[in-house]
Amino acid sequence: MANSLNFSAQSSKSASSAPMKVLLSSRGFLGGVEKVFLYAGVICVFALALLISSSVLLRTVFNSGIPDEVVIVGEFMIGALVLPLAFVAADRGFITVEIFTQKFGVKIQQALNVLASVFGVIAVAPITYAAYLSFIDVVDSGAYFFGLLELPKWPGRSLFFCGYILFFIRLIDLSIFDVLVVFGVVNAPEEGSEKEGGY
Predict the structure, then answer these.
(1) 166 Rama class: left (phi>0) / alpha (psi -120 to 50) / beta
(2) Hey, where are the domains in the chain?
(3) 140, 153 Cβ separation under 8 angstroms
(4) Which residues on adjacent β-strands are paired with residue 152?
(5) Contacts of 156 (CB under 8 A, 6+ apart)
(6) Alpha-carbon span 93 to 53, nearest angstrom
(7) Residue 144 phi, psi dihedral angles, 5° rounding
(8) H/E element holding 95?
(9) DSSP class of residue 103?
(10) Which in 20, 32, 52, 92 has the greatest CB count within 10 A?
(11) How far is C-alpha 163 from the geometric centre of its chain's CA atoms?
(12) Which phi and psi (to 5°) does residue 152 adopt?
């Protein structure tokens, strides 16, 4: 699991080196931040459920509603969907199709892991940069949603940017880890083990 990302490689020489110690510490810190973001995403889900239930109740019983509920739901949806991305990536929990790759040898599968991680970094980089530009723009302009509450746009944009920057960092980390596995610097954890994805 993603909460067990800081185990040592079986190779004592590699694990005892200074770069490996830095990687171990950074992975432990990154895993902690990912758990915080995961819990924040869970809070957003509960907030969504409470908001939608309250809105339905108000409309049914009092023929009323929550002001700007569509905007608020949209902002919470960003947190619920984007904040857990890095945690899921660390756990390699994305949906994958392995009909053919399972028939390949271990080395080829490890090389495919590198390919997937590197392409993930390439794909996420422009989205992360666009999220940064959008966040800076709404902060500088003070943009807000039109509605009764005139809610600012920066909270949702900041959630999106923070979620994607952490996702981007985790993909870089996975790329480094997969390359180290291919070259035998660290040992690959067994699939499905709690140590999967860690050093």
Answers:
(1) alpha
(2) 12-182
(3) no
(4) 144
(5) 74, 75, 78, 79
(6) 30
(7) -145, 165
(8) none
(9) G
(10) 20
(11) 6
(12) -70, 155
CB 20, CB 199: distance < 8 Å:
yes
DSSP bridge partners of 179: none
Q: What's the rounded Cα separation, in Å, for the pair 130 and 174?
A: 22
* Helices (H), ranges, 100-153: 106-141
Max Cα-Cα span within the chain? 70
Structural tokens at position 79: 């947190």
Q: pLDDT digit of tens for each residue in the chain (199 aa)?
A: 444 444 434 444 444 477 767 766 777 788 899 999 999 999 999 999 999 999 999 888 888 888 888 999 999 999 999 999 999 988 877 766 666 767 777 788 888 888 888 999 999 999 999 999 999 999 998 888 888 888 899 999 999 999 999 999 999 999 988 888 888 776 666 554 444 444 4
The label of the residue with tokens 């666009």 reads 130
Q: Two tokens at 109?
A: 């599968």
What are the backbone angles phi and psi of residue 52, rounded to the nearest 5°?
-70, -40
Give the 3-state secondary structure of residue 68: coil
Query: In Å, what is the CA distance from 70 to each residue of 22, 38, 74, 146?
Result: 45, 23, 6, 11
